[in-house]
Amino acid sequence: MEIRQANHGEFNHILQLLKQAATRIKNTGSTQWAHVLEGKEDQQLLTHLLNQEVMVGIMDNEIISVCYLTKRMSDWDCNLWGNRSTPHDFPTYYLHKLALADGYQGKGKADTFLLSLQKHMKQKYPEGSTIRLDCMAEKNILMDLYERVGFEFVARRDNIQLSDHTAPFNIYHWCSHVVNEEINSQS
């Protein structure tokens, strides 16, 4: 899978992909991404595109996956992560709105996307980087996905305020860094 930064010309395609994912979430009985279907994510997507904070996964010349990857902490991130430091002071990114296009669920494409994103980050930051993300603690399928591709469970945060209720969230991180074999062999 090719991973690259999205461009503003792909706004409509990415918004449609997010709406597909939001519809699937709604069909499970959850209201978690309802704002996407109500048009309340449009400006956020545009802002993230303009800030070069949208990553896409491409297969057969088609965008099949997307996520926001931001370097700055949102209020949401501050609430979940607090003042936790990151290992080795590497660049830290926050991953949000991971979504797949219709028809790609259950085929390992989310795994492929996240592993490809990790490879991209290793190439961009050979000295190391950190990706942080979160999910509702009840979302076993997401927790399994994150752990399967190397994200480490950091903590459970209870009573996180959502629009109409509170819920527990789990926070995860993935860290990469290159170990200098020469230095280690001399220790």
UniProtKB/TrEMBL annotation:
This is GNAT family N-acetyltransferase. It comes from Vagococcus xieshaowenii. Coiled coil: none annotated. It comes from the Bacteria. Residues 1-168 form the N-acetyltransferase domain. GO terms for molecular function: acyltransferase activity, transferring groups other than amino-acyl groups. InterPro entries: Acyl_CoA_acyltransferase, GNAT_dom. Pfam families: Acetyltransf_1.
